[in-house]
Design a protein that fits this description.
Layout lengths: L1 E7 L3 H12 L5 E4 L7 E8 L4 H19 L3 E8 H5 L4 H4 L5 E2 L6 H6 L18 E5 L1 E2 L10 H5 L3 E2 L2 H13 L4 E5 L8 H4 L4 H9 L6 E4 L9 H9 L3 E6 L7 H7 L5 H14 L4 E8 L6 H14 L3 E6 L7 H5 L6 H25 L4 E10 L2 E5 L11 E4 L10 H4 L3 E9 L4 E8 L4 H8 L2
Parallel strand pairs: 1-2, 1-3, 3-4, 4-5, 6-9, 9-10, 10-11, 11-12, 12-13, 16-18
Antiparallel strand pairs: 7-8, 14-15, 14-17, 15-16, 17-18
Helix pairs in contact: 9-10, 13-15
Length: 450
């Protein structure tokens, strides 16, 4: 068979799209690893076009693919995804060596371009042996945040039916996935187009019935109109992690208004208070934008004060970039110098580093159930329900055959164990093994290893 290599850039939503594509072409192609640097018949690139840095990374990846083609190491090159969708009329002339340029709103044209017949299927081609998987519950976005290009790249919000998601999740569980991470442009909007109601809590209840799924984690929740029944699931459903990724972006009324976020600072503070009250012990991750038009020294100081007050367990941030086609680019002047934006970003992240360290130190001495993700250099890399993969800290446990009763590290990966937290770093924790999480540990880990 011909060989096919897929390179995925950008977010976890792109990763899921690539996995769905590859699952439909395995009868026609041998799938090569993403980091493979040898010859291949077809090279496909799933690109990101959200902000400046992501666009630059995608362009560099495309140019690298072109160099491989010139060197005889790649046959056809197919580029799709957000960057391709956003600049579809410009890129073919700029990089003519690419054989096919396709969009981001439908994966079927990519499957067809690979010479295969698109077939609706929940199957995914997952090359990595990991005990967690992302479950993309909807596509597109109906919000109109002034800085964001996603709505005109990905189109209107479109939910995946509950029965299709349950089938996809069931297949993942049968392959050993223990944790589902629900993702979308806005997970709280789920169901409005199909069922004329917010149906995220209903979806969570259905996914909770799947044998083998132990944790369900919620990402990318828009704050406005946050559904209360989801908080009930987080508080009462033992399979739902007490963890929420909810990008707030800012706290200043002036900046939030310019961002078109549909909330103000008072409402945002009340939401954070309600989340912590309704779900005791919840770990909150948020994202902030610094340097947005309208953010002066006063507004940035208010943002720092809010972060000190809210004490988010996890926080990421990025500097504002003016994206063509957005309301902000057409109506606001980007007056803040790049150096000042970077200074504000550094100040914010230094504050968050201190908060994160303090939060981690409070966990020293606790006993926690963790999921073993992987093993490297004598260390079991683990996470608790309060830590999401790839974006949050890890819990590191030193392995020795004696401590684990002779169990090999590869048999521990994908299992839940009990650990005692012994030390805290800025973002990671160190811990010691206590014992298996359940009495049927051996059966559990055998049945659910990838």
């Amino acid at each position: 068979m011909k060989t096919l290599q897929a390179v995925t850039l950008g977010c976890s939503k792109n990763k899921v799209d690539t996995e769905h594509i590859l699952s439909q072409v395995t009868d026609s192609y041998t799938i090569l690893p993403e980091d493979y640097d040898g010859p291949c018949d077809v090279l496909i690139l799933n690109t990101c076009g959200f902000i400046g840095d992501a666009k630059e990374e995608s362009i560099q990846a495309i140019l690298a693919a072109v160099e491989r083609k010139k060197a005889g190491l790649a046959g056809r090159i197919i580029v799709f995804g957000c960057l391709s969708q956003r600049y579809f009329s410009q890129l073919p002339d700029l990089i003519p060596e690419v054989d096919s340029w396709l969009g981001a709103r439908d994966i079927n044209p990519v499957v067809s371009a690979l010479g295969c017949r698109p077939v609706p299927s929940p199957s995914r081609f997952i090359a990595e042996s990991l005990p967690y998987a992302y479950l993309k519950i909807s596509e597109g976005c109906d919000r109109r945040c002034s800085y964001c290009a996603i709505p005109f790249i990905r189109g209107a919000h479109k939910s995946v039916p509950i029965e299709d998601l349950v089938e996809e999740a069931s297949q993942l569980a049968a392959r050993g996935v223990r944790e589902l991470i629900l993702i979308a442009q806005d997970t709280t909007f789920y169901g409005l187009d199909l069922y004329h109601r917010r149906a995220l809590a209903e979806l969570i209840r259905e996914l909770s019935r799947i044998d083998g799924i132990r944790w369900i984690r919620i990402h990318y929740s828009y704050p406005a109109g946050f559904p209360d029944d989801v908080l009930d699931e987080m508080a009462d459903n033992p399979k739902v992690c007490k963890y929420l990724d909810i990008p707030l972006q800012h706290i200043s009324d002036k900046v939030l208004d310019k961002m078109h976020r549909q909330v103000d600072g008072t409402w945002t503070r009340e939401l954070v208070r309600r989340l912590r009250e309704r779900v005791p012990g919840v770990s909150l991750r948020t994202t902030m934008i610094v340097g947005h038009p309208g953010e002066g020294k006063k507004e940035f100081a208010e943002l720092l004060d809010f972060v000190r007050e809210a004490r988010f367990e996890r926080l990421g941030a990025f500097t504002y970039s003016q994206e063509e086609g957005t309301f902000g680019a057409e109506n606001y002047r980007d007056r803040i110098p790049a150096a000042e934006k970077q200074r504000r970003l550094s100040d914010l992240m230094e504050l968050q580093r201190e908060i994160s360290l303090e939060s981690n130190r409070a966990r020293v001495g606790s006993e926690e159930t963790v999921l073993v993700d992987s093993f490297t250099d004598g260390i079991l890399v683990c996470r608790s329900q309060y830590d999401s993969p790839e974006v949050d800290g890890e819990i590191l446990v030193r392995y020795s055959p004696e401590a684990f009763g002779g169990l090999a590290p590869e048999d521990l990966c994908g299992s839940f164990i009990r650990v005692a937290v012994t030390a805290a770093e800025d973002y990671d924790l160190l811990a010691e093994y206590i014992g298996p999480e359940t009495d049927d540990f051996k059966t559990d880990q055998t049945n659910h290893r990838l």
